[in-house]
Amino acid sequence: MKLIDTDILVLGGGPAALVTVSTALQNYPDKKITLIKEDEISLVPCGIPYIFGKTLAQSSKNIMPFSPAVAEKTTIITDTATSVDIESKTLYANSHKITFDKLVFATGSTPFVHKSFEDALHLKNVFTIQKCKEKIDQLKDYLEDKQKVIIIGTGFIGVEMATELRSIGKDVTIVGGRHILAGSFDVDMAIEAEKIMQEMGIELVLGQYASRIVQSGSLAEGIELCDGGRIDGDVIILATGYQPNTQLAKNAGLKLAHYGGIWVDEYMRTKNKDIFAVGDCCGRRDFITRDPSKVMLASTSASEARVAGSSLYGLQYLKGFNGTIAIFSTMIGNRAFASAGVTEDRAKKENIDYTVGYFQGLNRHPGTIPDASKQSVKLIAIRSSGQIIGGQVIGDKEAGEVINIIGLAIETELSAHHLVSLQVATQPLLTAAPTTYPIIKAAEQIIQARFQ
Amino acid sequence: MKLIDTDILVLGGGPAALVTVSTALQNYPDKKITLIKEDEISLVPCGIPYIFGKTLAQSSKNIMPFSPAVAEKTTIITDTATSVDIESKTLYANSHKITFDKLVFATGSTPFVHKSFEDALHLKNVFTIQKCKEKIDQLKDYLEDKQKVIIIGTGFIGVEMATELRSIGKDVTIVGGRHILAGSFDVDMAIEAEKIMQEMGIELVLGQYASRIVQSGSLAEGIELCDGGRIDGDVIILATGYQPNTQLAKNAGLKLAHYGGIWVDEYMRTKNKDIFAVGDCCGRRDFITRDPSKVMLASTSASEARVAGSSLYGLQYLKGFNGTIAIFSTMIGNRAFASAGVTEDRAKKENIDYTVGYFQGLNRHPGTIPDASKQSVKLIAIRSSGQIIGGQVIGDKEAGEVINIIGLAIETELSAHHLVSLQVATQPLLTAAPTTYPIIKAAEQIIQARFQ
């Protein structure tokens, strides 16, 4: 048992932990910082699907690097934490006892599996997507000589796994809700993504759910659908979401929020001002309703980690924006799909009096520029004020940054009136035309809609 | 002489005119709108350099389209306006007399030529870049069998002309200030662009100016430099900026601003509330100092046109942001260069107490993603408050939208503290990593710099 005393102790190995450490290093250069993580090697979480296709092709190409500053100035321990005693400010691990002044939980999340599938988890060909190199390598090895893959779950991970596995010639069936990516895209946008997946030859089984995994000895043979239908497969991947990894925090007596995340205030502090939690293990709030949010994103985690890492010894600035805006992007085929804030569907559910602006233009100008392609922007705004509360973008790769313009507009509580006179850089080879910049044109529609 | 009576008359054929018309159509669907323009066909102004290389290769691929709504609901006249009588609200053209209720000048700009070169303009092989299809075709035809091109001026048009002409094998020499794109990029960023141009085989003659064009009969033989050196060439292109085209407005008695633009208030109104001016022909103000600004950009023009087009019969909203932030982007080789707000150099000149944040990362994550390349972000902020007043980006094509995030941060008066907890969408195939998103990392540096 090795004894260590540290000022700041960060527990975890993902982006939240890493960013907490690097932010703390910047803000408290004189403090002793220790990171304890379970695995020697951390994977880039959102890169995991790309290990399975041609994009990265191997897990060793998806390693999260430690910056030289972090590696040099931080004590990094690979060990499994077993308990935390908040009273004595001590963390116990298999072979370490660490006393700390400030503790940050960044223990991440583990796959969520429906009760009805739990029994099937021991089968050789049923997998979840765990953020652990060893487990990912096991799945990749197993897939090597298998042809028929069933993916249960149509969130980002399920969809990205489907497209990557299809790209290396697997027969892929994906099973899930009425439309894919339902939390982030309205039906009008989702069907464009579904069309591309179908063109790629992916079998979409939508508006269904898998009621049972059919076993035969130590293997799954396939799944049974709620309508009684059956799909056979060589491998079944459960991509049905993640849940906060909070056992340690719970055992330590920390308060949990809804959905099992560690309760934190807007500055990522638990009820104890010396204990913080960041990333997927903490309880998140929605930016519109402040209700608990299930959103799990590395970028949200990084944002939380920057707040925590600079607030450990007292708040240094007030956060400009509260809650999680759920800002995502992904690529399906050669099109990027991105979303921020609330969808139209969600606005309806929350009983928001909203209006929509939609514009489809091109991402270059004039349209004769060789790589020009369509760019669609949908904006959702509060009807009375025109305040932007959501947006969705489909386009080429630039859509990944266009959504960040919309995200910033949401965070800064801009209205459509602000957006219509926005000064944007436009350039033939790089962007839409100044005359038809899609965000601005969609904002115009929101203003017009108010008069109708 | 044809007599026409209209409610709204827009004078011009560029993006400012077009957007004024389409915005007015949306806001005042019951008004009669007339557009009078000099040329039958309008070119996309920022697409002009790409006519000369392989990208567009012909002017017919660079035509600015009129939307069906505009074409259908607007009276479009091709004629040359000769005078405006503000008293009687009448515009006279060669073969039209048009009475109006509201008039919008969108007469654009014409090439600015230094006094010392004016005499050379009549030479067969000396050209300016005019926003007129006929003139562009003339230059393109002339260049056909010529090899040595000298470009005077290192602004965006000069640089874009240089790279496009080089891409089709011309020997190109570009002559100008100490560094290219000096108004928009600091030296540290500009030298990266210069390196690429040199690698392309473009001859850069910097820190010099052309003192004289050397004539021989009806042709120019080359130029003489201020240090006495001489460069020979087959064609000389003057890319030394543009000046507002305001003769008509001046003759009508409208007040002019500095640099000759038509004086307008923040709502694009001249001193006469029925007469507006938008685009390059109007006087602009800098967003930092409110001093006159020489910036001429189609995107700025479009923004002004949206303000004017919705304010013709009374202001409908207060502008959220005053002044021109000079937000540009371009491509040099396969790298995008983008800039918004003030450069470090300008901040010094304005005696602003500023700090700088700079981060170079990658535009994908992990760095093993096949098309990953460097992305550099430089932010300039007021030291005391951390308020962002400028930014520069070098990257792949996504940089064209990254600068618009920075532009929005400037327009909404965000500080570096806001930016560090920004929620951004990050995705392996589309963006930088959540842990090292360059805008956020540069903002962190600004905060750190304040403590030093």
From TrEMBL, chains A, B:
Report keywords, A-Z: FAD, Flavoprotein
Q: Which SUPFAM superfamilies match?
A: FAD/NAD(P)-binding domain, FAD/NAD-linked reductases, dimerisation (C-terminal) domain
> Which positions fall inside the Pyridine nucleotide-disulphide oxidoreductase dimerisation domain?
332-434
Domain of life from the UniProt record: Bacteria
> What are the FAD/NAD(P)-binding domain coordinates in residue numbering?
7-303
User: Could you state a single Gene Ontology molecular function term?
Assistant: oxidoreductase activity
Please list the cofactors this protein needs.
FAD
Q: Which Pfam families match?
A: Pyr_redox_2 (PF07992), Pyr_redox_dim (PF02852)
- Known PANTHER family for this protein? NITRITE REDUCTASE [NAD(P)H], PYRIDINE NUCLEOTIDE-DISULFIDE OXIDOREDUCTASE DOMAIN-CONTAINING
Q: Which family is it part of? A: Belongs to the FAD-dependent oxidoreductase family.
What name appears for this protein in its UniProt entry? Pyridine nucleotide-disulfide oxidoreductase
Species in which this protein is naturally found:
Sulfurimonas xiamenensis
